Amino acid sequence: MELLRQGDSEGLERMVGDSPVAVRFLQGRLWDMDPEIRGEAAKALGAAAAAHPDLGREVLRRLLWALNDESATNGAYALPALGEIARRDPELAAPFIGPMVAYLWDDGLRLGILRALCRVAEVAPEAVEEVRDRLQEIVDTEDPEERACLARLLAGEREEVDGT
Asked: N or C: which terminal CB in the chain sees fewer CB atoms within 10 Å?
């Protein structure tokens, strides 16, 4: 917990690399009251998934389940971790991107999903290619933050169409 409070990303990365059992604790911290703790836990889970891909797949599966209403959790808190894992290892996360995007209909999850997609698109824009059609369906959103994320995600497509 001290590493999370200090924002010691390097220490957290070493810890999860050496001790994958810390992942369970970090998953619980995704629902912490402190947004900085949640953010550091998400980043550390990204590092853990990259270091231990089998464990990363299990974490992704659990995070995706948290989006489901039947899980009785607030899935919005799982989305930053999904984004960080996908950013650290886009190939590992690829099978989970489509199912995550399937929740765009949920107003409470939409911005978090778009932010997670933006995180992965920073390092692997091709990872969001297969969900572009779904993104186009919500391009008329009135939320300015959602519009900004969508503009970043769809920028490559517009450049091709505009010829710029």
From this structure: C
Give domain limits for the chain.
2-162
Name 16's Cβ contacts closer than 8 Å, sequence gap at least 6.
22, 23, 26, 44, 45, 47, 48, 51, 52
This prediction has a pTM of: 0.84
> If 0-12 CB within 10 Å is exposed, 13-18 middle and 19+ buried, where does residue 143 land?
middle
Q: 52-105, pLDDT tens digit by residue? A: 899 899 999 999 998 887 655 678 899 999 999 999 999 999 999 999 999 999
Q: Classify domain 2-162 at the CATH class level.
A: mainly alpha
Judge residue 46's burial from the number of C-beta atoms within 10 Å of its C-beta, 0-12 exposed, 13-18 middle, 19 or more buried. Answer: buried
